[in-house]
């Protein structure tokens, strides 16, 4: 029953856009009355979250392929962000429902619940990436990847949090502009601009670390 409602909502999102989802439409498509939905979802935002996750499967599969192209942790981090930018800028409402919308106090529990119902979404995902995907917080996701670079000596502890925070703020700025129709960039243009600044931040921090090591 739970999956009927999630899949029905995902179909409406695909056909009409997330902004056109209503409880009545979901109930009609699933073949039940509207009141039944609230027996399975305490908040409408949770239903939208689960349905939006269904619409993110292309991203989940693609990010693994992006990361595989990286030769070191820094490249992998940048490629992961490039993939995230490309898909989030192409589907801002979907990514807003998953990563930005207020879901209450249980976003990680919602993610775990989702993958319990849709385990096939993780079939082609490497184990180390699964750990990251089970984290709802973008701050924690970015930190997890940067910690690999830290452990392998590509960054120092003092730079990790700064890179993580600045990178996220750069993405949020562009994402907010696109979500609210403040910029007319397409996904490719927005990704190119965002990645230019993110790459500069990461590379400059990495260069600073290398120069510091050489002086020592």
UniProtKB/TrEMBL annotation:
Domain HTH tetR-type stretches: 1-59
Keywords: DNA-binding
Location of the DNA-binding region in this protein: 22-41
Pfam families in the cross-refs: TetR_N
Gene3D superfamilies: Tetracycline Repressor, domain 2
Keyword DNA-binding: yes
Domain of life per record: Bacteria
Protein's name in the database: TetR/AcrR family transcriptional regulator
Protein species of origin: Lysinibacillus capsici
